[in-house]
Specification:
The chain is an all-alpha fold. It contains seven helices and no strands. Helix content is 75%, strand content 0%. Helix 3 crosses helix 6. The longest helix has 33 residues.
């Protein structure tokens, strides 16, 4: 990145400069991208962990996981230096990511989990593009690829819940519970009769 006037920097970039961060350090942006996505992913996970996540929510989480997996160290030989126009693209992608994060935060405040899921995918898309620029040889799946696999797994899981085997086992558990209750009542009656005698 060529030296840029402070007026052209975003508010967060201006704050970083005031704190002594070198915005010309390309690989710093790679690290920030992974850290921002990790935080957003965790916030989303907390939102959905108490219930049963929908297929789209699972897919959003798995997409973020896939993009973050094996994230390279800044000094890794797998990470390449960027041309100036590529670095400009990274900065634009990061600005878009930050706008999506602002949307995500607002959605979290309103409890809009489905909207958060969609926004997590958009944030992950930005980070995936940043990683592709720095590490072009790393095989990153697309959201569509992950979504297809997750949907198949979801359908299979839902099929198991609706299957007669599950109903039969549920009925069996209910019968066992009733039997245990009857035995407990019989024991309690015997104990009371013994005490009365």
């Amino acid at each position: 990145m060529s030296d840029t006037g402070t007026a052209e920097l975003s508010a967060s970039e201006q704050l970083a400069v005031k704190r002594g961060v070198d915005l010309n350090d390309q690989r710093l942006w790679l690290k920030i991208a992974s850290e921002r996505l990790s935080i957003v992913r965790y916030v989303f996970l907390v939102q959905v962990e108490d219930g049963i996540a929908s297929a789209s929510q699972r897919a959003a989480l798995e997409y973020a996981d896939a993009v973050l997996i094996g994230w390279p160290d800044n000094d890794s030989p797998e990470v390449r230096d960027l041309e100036s126009h590529e670095f400009d693209t990274v900065r634009k992608l990061m600005a878009i990511m930050e706008q999506h994060i602002a949307d995500f935060t607002a959605q979290e405040g309103k409890g809009e989990v489905d909207a958060m899921s969609d926004t997590l995918v958009q944030i992950t898309d930005c980070v995936a593009q940043v990683r592709r620029l720095f590490q072009p040889d790393f095989p990153l799946p697309t959201f569509d690829e992950i979504s297809k696999v997750v949907q198949e797994e979801w359908n299979e899981d839902m099929g198991k819940i609706d299957s007669p085997d599950v109903d039969a086992s549920a009925e069996g558990i209910e019968r066992q519970t009733e039997h245990a209750d009857e035995q407990r009542e019989t024991r309690q009656s015997s104990d009371m009769d013994g005490r009365a005698a």
